[in-house]
Records
---
Amino acid sequence: MPTLILVRHGRSTANTAGILAGRTPGVRLDDHGRAQAEALPARLAAIPLAAAVSSPLERCRETLAPLLAARPGLAVHEEEGVNECDYGDWSGRKLSELSGEPLMEVVQQHPSAAAFPGGESMRHMHHRAAEAVRTWNTRIAEEHGEDAAYVLCTHGDIIKSLVADALGLHLDLFQRISVQPCSVTAIRFTRLRPFLVRLGDTGDLDSLAPRPATGEDAGRATVGGGTGAP
């Protein structure tokens, strides 16, 4: 099965303003976020990419733009399943204001029970994102082979929920995961189980490039943790 390269969008104007952007239109990358996006092609240079998938929101499309410019033949696909969580009435509000809402404690401590007024539940967000990735895994494998890699640019809560899914963690534990703007998280899927091989990485990514098979089962975990990614 393919390797999924998850990229959180670069730092946005909402991030710096402390606003819960949600799906509010017009939220773009700030200057630092654009610099992060410009650095992404070099960070991913060693990795052959079969496709690029993006949340529909501007800040994700902006983050992928330099990568697409550097790889003119790379196809990009918009995927509603990895859109930002629909925070409903909370969208566009200051996080400092929301911190006093009773629901915020539920969001942080028991997210599987959290549903945003006028928006969606975190359970629904988790389910749709995981289903979207499974669909894309199948498509990429069929069109580009089992060892292909593809990049998917999305949002922090989506990435955290996908990591939890890959690790078999209950959604109530996903708030323990942290992914910074423009960080890279990689999940290598196999027939039986996925492996988390990068989490919130902001540095060199060359070791994610495909390497020759050694005859060992690529999906087998090494006793004692091993010295490299599975």
Note: The helical segments are 13-17, 31-43, 58-70, 95-98, 102-109, 122-144, 156-167.
---
Amino acid sequence: MNQNQPTQPSRRRILKQTLAISALSVTGLTALSVPSISFAASLSKEERDAMTPDAVIEHFKQGNLRFRENRPAKHDYLAQKRNSLTGQYPAAVILSCIDSRAPAEIVLDAGIGETFNSRVAGNISNRDMLGSMEFACALSGAKVVLVMGHTRCGAVRGAINNAELGNLTGLLDEIKPAIEKTAFSGERKGSNYDFVDAVARKNVELTVENIRKNSPVLKELEDQKKIKIVGSMYHLAGGKVEFFEV
């Protein structure tokens, strides 16, 4: 095969597999293992456009399962790089934390050209992030906005502890509403990681609410069922990405 002209069959296989697994989820059979597959090329416009928001979410669930079972897809990153040179058609935009232990593309087993990625401490949504997500969905055709928090989040812990440091102080202020709105019966301190994780989860929920509230563009796309805005939590222990009910 000519290395400079990667073909698409393997990508089509995994998309068909995603749709089949999505159907199996109704019967509770999604725990079945799926053979490792090669990603020989990046997503094409036709492939991305054929996916529903639910199919994209299921695709990421299966990618996370592969990650947890240490059987990632056989990504040909050089082929993906070449294939996406003249255009990109990501299926989702991910808003996640900068934490080095929570790289969204790796834990979802995604390849080059598959996701837009926005990272900021505490996975908060400001005007710049909203504009980026509007570009991803309204102009570039992404089907899912995925907000991904994670356990043992240092930014959340800093907000709980009222940490202050230059511009970080203002960023942590954006997380503090989640502290007040978190129902928790135990010790409400940054040293209690159960509380930190509860606040991190609430912070994701509020971020999803803020996206809908502050971006009429994304809210309209979701109301039209063209996209889904979804929250999730990545668990450092075990590696599972828990998708909130959609």
Note: The two ends are 42 Å apart (CA to CA).
